[in-house]
Amino acid sequence: MSLLDTLLGLVTGKPADGQASTLQTALSGLLSQSGGLEGLKSKFSANGLGDIFSSWVGMGENKSVSADQVHSALGSEQISALASQLGVDPSKASGFLATYLPKIIDKLTPSGQVEGGGDASEGLAALLPSLLSSMGGDEQKPA
């Protein structure tokens, strides 16, 4: 089953068995392997993308990121691991993250700050249904 099938099933409310948990597990693993939100922030900053990551956390508009930038920040090993979990090509995994990582980080940081020591995977589990239903929209944080 493709990533698109998984997302479509979740968005339409008719997921196949295990789709939501597969996506949640893959995204939680990405956060965990990166050292949580702080680690992810550090990876993006180390690759000259700190301002982009900060825009996702902050209360303003989310800056866009390209698949190549995501790949550069996370590295081939992490992208390949995510792609393997989702059953897609690594370039599709990078594209998926480029599209949805800004929204995910935005939703995981409602206060406009990266909270140190928090378990982002718990927040991810809570926000996944609403995130999936809003993936077509461009919701903004309240000012």
Characterise the protein shown here.
The protein is mainly alpha-helical. The protein has one domain (3-134): Arc Repressor Mutant, subunit A (Orthogonal Bundle). 68% of the residues lie in helices and 0% in strands. The chain contains 8 helices and no strands. Helix 2 crosses helix 3, helix 5 crosses helix 7 and helix 6 (76-86) packs across helix 7 (90-108). The chain is globular, with a radius of gyration of 14 Å. The chain starts with a helix and ends in a 9-residue tail after the last helix.
Q: How would a crystallographer describe the biggest sheet? A: none
What structural category arises from helix and sheet content? mainly alpha
Order of helices and strands: HHHHHHHH
CATH class: Mainly Alpha
- Helix segment count? 8
What secondary-structure arrangement, pairings included, does this model have?
Blueprint: H1 3-11, H2 19-34, H3 36-46, H4 50-57, H5 67-74, H6 76-86, H7 90-108, H8 120-134
Helix pairs in contact: 2-3, 2-6, 2-8, 3-4, 4-7, 5-7, 6-7, 7-8
